[in-house]
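Much of our argument rests on the idea that a fold can be written as discrete symbols. Part of our work consisted of pairing the sequence of a single chain with a tokenised description of its backbone. We regard such an encoding as a compact summary of how the chain folds. The amino acid sequence and the backbone structure tokens for this protein are reproduced below.
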Amino acid sequence: MMDRRDQLYSFAELHRHYRTCRRNKRATLNALRFEVDAEANLLALRQELRQHTYHPGRSICFITDGPKPREVFAADFRDRIVHHLLVYHLERVFEPRFIHDSYASASARGPWPPTIG
């Protein structure tokens, strides 16, 4: 029988979050590098997580050129998989404890409350 840690870091779980992570990042250089040998990369990531030797990689910093320029620090693709995995499991614990009017990054609420017109 698998314990919670084995379930959390299972290959199937990591692969599922890898697939959700790559949805909008598939054409990025980091995602393509990871995808070339995705199975081996996921197995290595799983081993690091299970052995508590995982360390986040370096983020990429860039400036957006939208109406208001802003500095963005983008996590490495491999780290994004870990982010997706952790958020998926932790939001079930923390979201019920947030105040009702909290909309920041809430999966079922979106970034803003509905407007009443």
User: Anything to note?
Assistant: Strands lie at 60-63, 71-74.
